[in-house]
Design goal:
With about 110 residues, the protein is mostly helical. The protein has helices at about 10-20, 30-35, 40-55, 75-85, 100; strands at about 25, 60-65. The chain has a single domain (about 10-100), classed as Orthogonal Bundle (Arc Repressor Mutant, subunit A), CATH 1.10.10.
Length: about 110
């Protein structure tokens, strides 16, 4: 049997982001940890920036560790907020998302 081809961090991050279900969010750091690189949150942001449109990633479901949208207040910010709102995600004080309620918690293999 052939050995599986190892995925790059870029490929792993995209695969994880594609799995975030509607109505749930994940943080940059969470995605980095799930991809096996817990200190690579900035690289997750780079993957989103460089491939969201062409790979049809649900970019709007990725937020910062404080439960907030990382974009500056702009059209992009408003679009992300609206897309999340349409999926049932609510915003509290200072536009923060309750991570206890809305954070995606995938089951890990073997657990």
């Amino acid at each position: 049997m052939a050995k599986p081809i190892p995925q790059t961090l870029f490929q792993r991050v995209k695969a994880i982001i594609k799995k975030i279900p509607r109505g749930k969010v994940a943080t940059y750091g969470q995605i980095a940890a799930l991809a096996g690189q817990p200190r690579a949150a900035r690289q997750v942001a780079w993957v989103l920036h460089s491939s969201s449109d062409k790979d049809r990633l649900p970019w709007h479901r990725v937020i910062n560790r404080n439960g907030a949208i990382s974009l500056p207040r702009s059209r992009g910010y408003e679009l992300q907020r609206e897309l999340l709102r349409r999926e049932g995600v609510t915003f509290g004080l200072r536009d923060a998302i309750d991570l206890e309620r809305f954070q995606w918690r995938p089951r890990l293999k073997g657990k």
